[in-house]
Amino acid sequence: MLCFTSDYIAGAHPKIMERLMETNLENLSGYGTDPYCERAIGKIKDACGCPDADVYFAVGGTQTNQLIISTMLAPYEGVIAAKTGHVSLHEAGAIEYTGHKVLELPGENGKLSAAAIDAYVRAYYADENYEHMVFPGMVYISFPTEYGTIYSKQELTEISAVCKNYKMPLFVDGARLGYGLASKANDVTLEELAQLCDVFYIGGTKVGALCGEAIVFTKKNAPMHFLTQIKQHGALLAKGRLLGIQFDTLFTDHLYEEIGAHAITLAEKLKRLFHEKGYRFFIDSPTNQQFIILENERMKQLSEKVAFGFWENYDADHTVVRFATSWSTTEEDIEALSELL
Amino acid sequence: MLCFTSDYIAGAHPKIMERLMETNLENLSGYGTDPYCERAIGKIKDACGCPDADVYFAVGGTQTNQLIISTMLAPYEGVIAAKTGHVSLHEAGAIEYTGHKVLELPGENGKLSAAAIDAYVRAYYADENYEHMVFPGMVYISFPTEYGTIYSKQELTEISAVCKNYKMPLFVDGARLGYGLASKANDVTLEELAQLCDVFYIGGTKVGALCGEAIVFTKKNAPMHFLTQIKQHGALLAKGRLLGIQFDTLFTDHLYEEIGAHAITLAEKLKRLFHEKGYRFFIDSPTNQQFIILENERMKQLSEKVAFGFWENYDADHTVVRFATSWSTTEEDIEALSELL
Amino acid sequence: MLCFTSDYIAGAHPKIMERLMETNLENLSGYGTDPYCERAIGKIKDACGCPDADVYFAVGGTQTNQLIISTMLAPYEGVIAAKTGHVSLHEAGAIEYTGHKVLELPGENGKLSAAAIDAYVRAYYADENYEHMVFPGMVYISFPTEYGTIYSKQELTEISAVCKNYKMPLFVDGARLGYGLASKANDVTLEELAQLCDVFYIGGTKVGALCGEAIVFTKKNAPMHFLTQIKQHGALLAKGRLLGIQFDTLFTDHLYEEIGAHAITLAEKLKRLFHEKGYRFFIDSPTNQQFIILENERMKQLSEKVAFGFWENYDADHTVVRFATSWSTTEEDIEALSELL
Amino acid sequence: MLCFTSDYIAGAHPKIMERLMETNLENLSGYGTDPYCERAIGKIKDACGCPDADVYFAVGGTQTNQLIISTMLAPYEGVIAAKTGHVSLHEAGAIEYTGHKVLELPGENGKLSAAAIDAYVRAYYADENYEHMVFPGMVYISFPTEYGTIYSKQELTEISAVCKNYKMPLFVDGARLGYGLASKANDVTLEELAQLCDVFYIGGTKVGALCGEAIVFTKKNAPMHFLTQIKQHGALLAKGRLLGIQFDTLFTDHLYEEIGAHAITLAEKLKRLFHEKGYRFFIDSPTNQQFIILENERMKQLSEKVAFGFWENYDADHTVVRFATSWSTTEEDIEALSELL
Lengths: 341, 341, 341, 341
Hints:
The structure is a homotetramer.
Chain A (H helix, E strand, L loop, with lengths): L1 E2 L10 H9 L12 H14 L5 E5 L2 H12 L4 E6 L3 H4 L4 H4 L4 E4 L8 H13 L8 E8 L10 H13 L4 E4 L3 H6 L7 H7 L2 E5 L9 E5 L8 H7 L8 H10 L4 H22 L3 E2 L7 E7 H7 L3 E2 L1 E7 L2 E7 L6 H10 L1
Parallel strand pairs in A: 1-11, 3-4, 3-5, 5-6, 6-7
Antiparallel strand pairs in A: 2-8, 7-8, 9-10, 10-13, 12-13
Helix pairs in contact in A: 1-11, 2-11, 6-7, 12-14
């Protein structure tokens, strides 16, 4: 059966699997001290244009968000995020579990605006009772967002300026970063993104790896004893090579970019397909996730031949569904879908 | 100077001070095991019509909210509250500090509706990904609310039914309970309130005590080893008598009711005063807190002769201020205010 | 019945009760912003010879330990304490509740030695895997200890030096500080103690107050936004005056010293009494807590006429019990005890 | 260079790599809902003789310990463990991070005795102040221990009985379970172990997998909504297949047993080698970790040609080192070591 459910339905990109096989019998030291981790870190710093960055690896997205947010916030601080942000909604309270409030702002199409952040923080400090409230200590945005949308360079620059103004670090969740950077609508480079924020991560799990996210503290600003804090969170792999080898491969010969580009090309085709067939879109997404409004009867029919993600109810008769592409989506998949539609 | 800033500007009701003096030299056992605590607990159970209730004392409101919510929720649960609820806004993240999310719903005039709670929880369980989200595990309402408003018996009954339906305990923050019960608009008795919820507290700090809140688990449903959990939170007083004697006094000869009635009578007079002088109200509060919209210039003038609480900006030229009455407010205070206005 | 159970069996010192009465009707601002708090802070700074200290009030001992330790430690740090320390044993895990390990060292007679601390920390940093372990981030000692013993100036100086060497703040739990300072065996002044440590607290609850502990960050080194962190812990009193007035009184006309001296004088008499009658001591305590080994039959007899604290089993036939004096113990109590023995 | 540093120096067992390759392009659902996870769970239940067990996968050992302990303990409970236990010493405070104390008992050769546990818990409940202390809520042992030693069936049966008596679940950390079961000195089967404890895990990372531990709640006793709690801890993999496929392979055709047997056979040879050459052992370990006392000069020489783990200083002139075998150790490695010695 055709499958567009998500971008984590297949294993790893074949080049990654190959490297894991080739290196399998090498004796390497543990906990991220092996040469593959080191090499991957070097390549990531180069790709980001951040020679001074601190780079670490974690296993999954929620873990990474939890690690970064809980170690960068002071105990009395919370993190500003869109109400629809992954940390607000879909991480089972992982941030609150570490003692911090997610300060939820409305957002639009999954995005926060510099103006909204500024208004919130200004009002906070203007409040006579601000010392009885949670300090806004960080801003979290996702690129692309949970709705597939992306921020323009202009928007990021404005948000970055507000953050600087209030001395709040800006954190970009890049679980799907590769698809954002490859989007036709995107005008930000990886280097620029790294410049504009204080910490971000390069998603591996959803962009071709078996697992793994690369955390980049762009300004040599990793929290003190970050390795120990990773361990304390239960997030340190004994066989750190598993992450090092994957990211070393992703950042060799532009594989990460290639994966992003491939998925975007097919997503564009898929989008055109739906357009041509007269389907309605829930949101205009320029990345690898496409949100379509299906009439419920039609949804049932389709679901017999193609798998996709249920997103949310639209109204009594319609449902929003998600079609996602990834490195493993093929031209044949798109053609087959075309015939189905 | 005249002072209407809050309901905690004076010490304790004279009868409480008297009893503290009379008992001062008695040798009593510690940590709440003294006869005054025991007696106070008995009287509270009687007043609530809950012979099976578990009653404990804590020192202040935020501490009490933190204790109740964190010990009654499972680790994967959050508490539903109005966006304007004390636990949402004005406790410096004390709930999140214990690892739990406050699930904020809009609310109206500080109140949650049964319909809004029901819709939220129903949508939660209808979501395919609900296991990746925070379970709604409890409902928090305040009576009166942070805006001075109160719930009718009908409203409480409906909320209680929704809670029962989803097996979520209903928790009523009664930091100002005495003023809610005494309100002319109120149609709920203490006994009925106790019947309708699973846990609530009887505020002492803001209703005549030096400090202290009495927690009532209405259905013999105190969390396991609650005393140890109080200790673990740093909330157990060595001289537990300080709370026992105060509540014993408050629940002797209807002192608690008397204090509530006194403050409400004066609040009604104060309200009439502002009405007569043509002031605008921000909200129609039937309890001891009155929220007035003042023109900024007028606010400045007034503040030279009478102290009140700054609440929030209304617009560029107006500010919302709070006038509160309490056991210590006198008829003379109201008269003096009348002259000022 | 005679009562030597603990030093928190009575209410507050009469001078404190008097001041609470006198000030009861004054309208004061909340949350520790009133003039009594301010005045108390000034007097405490003077008494400690620390014009730059940051001083805050909390309600009880466990709360204070929890507040200080959790706000001064980095997330990856634990606190070194004697196995018999209050934070190790008798606070229901209040420190661990905030996410930090208590690193327990053996100790002797309730005391830690500089050598033991140094050896522990040196071994820690010498361990190849120290990054996988809890960093020693603070040293906790109590003065007097839970066994009534005290540190000499020499011992404190050595511990202080070790702490400085490893950049670990030294925290002195002074729940019973007044009795330690007044001890005939003591050679440390309050000023010297303040010099030697980074933070300590002046116990009120067990030294004449209804409740309250005064936290002194001796080097203007209070954790950032400490007031907000007090609130977040549920430890901020609305009627902060309750603590301010008590400490203002304790630090007026040397009342705090007087209370300490009174209790020590009577403890010395009590000690002599037991000595003369041939009782054995469990430990040679120079402060207000005396630990006696009683034959079990004798214990039963005595307990019919005098109340004391059960401490621990000594052997099959003997039990260790505690007799404590305080401000409320009288010469008559000692005489009555003498007759009993 | 020869390498005996640890049992996680190589990648995964070739059969695991093969299966990961074969299944790489299959489209599978996420978060552990795929058929490989399901199949692995079935095989594990069979192998444990626990048809009713609840089985879940996590990524690494510290994460697994943290997950199990924090979700099975009540908030006021701590976990009993040997002072040398992994959770006590080498997890950077991961247990305390979740709010729980590790109640450390001395232990012998890494092992706890039933008598020591019983004595501790009995003394706890006999203490008048037990409600001010941390409740012993669970017992943690490792099999094999951190020193390579194992418990006999008799010892486990006794510990299990004590746990039942006090209603404390027994948790067995099986990070190296495969090596314990394969030990010549072992008299416990996997089925018996499962019977005797309430929860344990089957270590993958150190027994042939790239990563992964299989948690077995032996009596259908998984904590409520355990999946959500895994997510909340940041421990839920999007590509759950990575764990499912590995454990499916390990539990096909007795691969897990085979790996254990292989490593033990070579460990025995290695042990004999050191014995014959007159080396001293720090501890008599019957599993894959061997602890040798080396004269420091000799250690330096050896370390030029063979890698091993530094364990701890023995005395001024000697050091304890660790040699470990695993699935990837070969007969040739042992022969080469023989020549070196």
